[in-house]
Amino acid sequence: MIERLAGIIAGPRTKWVTLIAWIVIAALLSVFLPAVGDMEQNNAQNLESDSPSVIAEQLIKDKFPSSSGIPALVVWHRESGLTEEDYLLVQKTTQTLVEQPLQEQGELVPLHQLPMPALQQFTSEDGTTLVQPISFAEQTETEILKENIEAIQTIIGNESGRDPFAIAINDATELSVRISGPVGITVDATGLFKGADVSLLIATVFIVLILLLLIYRSPILAMIPLIGVGFAYIVTSPLLGWMAREGWIIVDAQAISIMTVLLFGAGTDYCLFFISHFRQELTRESDKMKALKRSFKDASGAIAMSGFTVVLSLLALLAAKYGAYDRFAVPFSLSILVMGIASLTLVPALLAIIGRASFYPFLPRTEAMEQARAAKKGKTFRKPDPEKKLGYKVGNIVVTKPWTVVISAVVVLGILASFSSQIKFTYDLLSSFPKDMPSREGFEVISKTFTPGDLAPVTVAIQTEGAGADLAAKLAGVPLVDHVQEPKESLDDPNLVSYSVILNINPYSQEAMDTIPLLREAVETALLGANVADVDQKVWISGQTASQYDSRQLTNHDNSVIIPLVIVLIMLLLVAYLRSIVAMLYLVGTVLLSYGAALGLGWIILHYFMGIDAIQASIPLYSFVFLIALGEDYNIFMISSIWQKRKTMPLKQAIKEGVGETGGVITSAGLILAATFSVLATLPIQVLVQFGLITAIGVLMDTFIVRPFLVPAITALLGKKAFWPAKVELIEEPKLRARN
């Protein structure tokens, strides 16, 4: 039945139908549906609508309209001290913005109307820096904010007659200007990801092509996986764009960037797994069509199972409450689904069309064909000895010394995994940016000359019900609070007041986030002391720090839900495919150990060699989903080969041959997948650098330790027990075997 399906997909005539169908589908989708890049929404809310900071922001927006909006902080700085000319430039800029307001611009502090002594009061104590806030309406599109920043830069450039944005912030004599704050950070972050899209795609295609040429030394073969992945990308992009246009999903630049890497890395792997089976069959069968049908029969189940495992694992991200996780689910899973279909339809059709020439100049031939070729050249034919191949040598070590292999692998991976307990996490968005990025430079200036918390104050709104508690003093007494500004009363309720709380540390740091529950506790305690009822419903806290605190809470929740969910899904799939609970347990266990080791080694490299104090808090979950799903991919391909071979030979011989035959293609696939993820490490965005590095390390561990050594060694040790509870009859081992 499966061979008949191969004939339908890649028969003498149907192979052309399959190819034309893919071309037509790709063309129609590209013409009539929008590309996913056109539907990017980079300012989508990560928090849920009922998150405390979201509720607080809405309340403050409704009850304190003058306080609402997201600020851009224009940082005016001169190392030697701001001059009168600098202050005049500030006033001219302010006047222009008042007379010609930007899109979605809110109220401005009327600096242009202040006398010079009053204006100088806004300057830092050392006289070097002035921070000018310019607010914009909530939910303003990132593209509009970008245009506004460019407009501000143009205004300042025209008024000054030079470009203070190009002056280094540590220049001893010249005026420098940077735009920071939430607006500056958002625009810079979006710019980094947008710039990464094209460079990432080019770099990924280039590195995959180079590796395929180096490994297989065949230009035609190198192009086949790229054609398959290319068609999958062309089909996936408009489908995602259509879904985003209909409002079913939200896509952002970060998701598209990682999806590109995943598609080219994992997609190439699936193509190679099929191609390797076809190549092997061509050495046994002279008829390319028969060889293709047999390879389809042998490879299709493992490819479909592996793809299904990855798709389900990625779909588990739909259970996330944090938006950045949830937005990854559909793009990632759909891309793998389409790629899986392409690897079982388009790639077989291409191989059927090209045939043996796919592998030119190293054509695979049957033994009879090789003998005839050698005779034609007047040479003696020498049958290649598979035992001399590295894969078979590894397989021999595994079956003759399984205890040595298992203990060595577990000790090495265990030691590396122990370092994962030392990992420190951060939610600091700024630490993920290049040090020379404008918004980060602006923040550095503010941190040195003002209180760091001025970058993003915490707003605490309180329903006092007329209580006379000294709330400002209570807030000021919370650790890490620098000062509390004068309260503002709501326009329609004098008992509803808001305080702007300035912290004395980086407002994006873990320590700053820890102050949010302390602020709430301090206010609620004060209200209780004033006999106010239901105090838990009378305090609202908003601002960037509060949002980050809620993000941390949701991230912790998602980790506790998604990680077990992915493990359970993979366990169920493995049991259904292998019919063995024991095999499922050690396949999952080895990949989990490999994941912990990847985190540990990644931390060693990032912390001790690259000087990074903490990794982004989202990295463990991202890496987990990818490494667990992709790691099981390799296990499935290798173990399915052993499962098939044990029907016709003793188990240890099946293990030896399974490791030997799958070794080359899985090693090639692992190198390509790791290389594509490592491309992320070349980008100027720390979160992608960290994710790319840790994921690449995990893939390499699966490729060179777990798959060739640990899993087959455990299988050899367990013997018949590896198949429990299935009842299998194993062929007896020859009596003369090498001692363990």
What attributes does this structure have?
single chain, 740 residues, alpha+beta, 5-stranded antiparallel sheet, 4-stranded antiparallel sheet, 23 helices, 11 strands, disordered C terminus
The total of beta strands comes to: 11
Secondary structure class reads alpha+beta
Distance between the termini: 42 Å
Assign a percent range to the helix content: 55-70%
Q: What is the helix tally?
A: 23
Proportion of residues in extended strands: 5-15%
Structural shape = elongated
The value of Rg in angstroms is 31 Å
Quaternary class? single chain
- Taking pLDDT < 50 over at least 5 consecutive residues as the criterion, the unreliable ranges are 736-740
Average pLDDT figure: 86
Biggest β-sheet strands, sense, barrel:
5 strands, antiparallel
Short description:
The chain is 62% helix and 7% strand.
Description:
The chain is built from 23 helices and eleven strands. It has helices spanning 2-10, 14-32, 52-63, 84-99, 116-120, 142-160, 181-216, 219-245, 253-282, 288-315, 323-344, 346-354, 367-376, 390-400, 402-418, 438-449, 471-476, 510-529, 544-578, 581-609, 619-645, 651-678, 686-718, and strands at residues 70-77, 105-108, 129-136, 176-180, 425-426, 458-463, 481-484, 488-489, 496-503, 539-542, 615-616. The strands form three sheets. Strands 6, 7, 8, 9 and 10 form a five-stranded antiparallel β-sheet that branches. Helix 8 (219-245) crosses helix 11 (323-344), helix 9 (253-282) packs parallel to helix 11 (323-344) and helix 21 (619-645) packs parallel to helix 23 (686-718). The radius of gyration is 31 Å and the shape is elongated. The model is unreliable at 736-740 (pLDDT under 50).
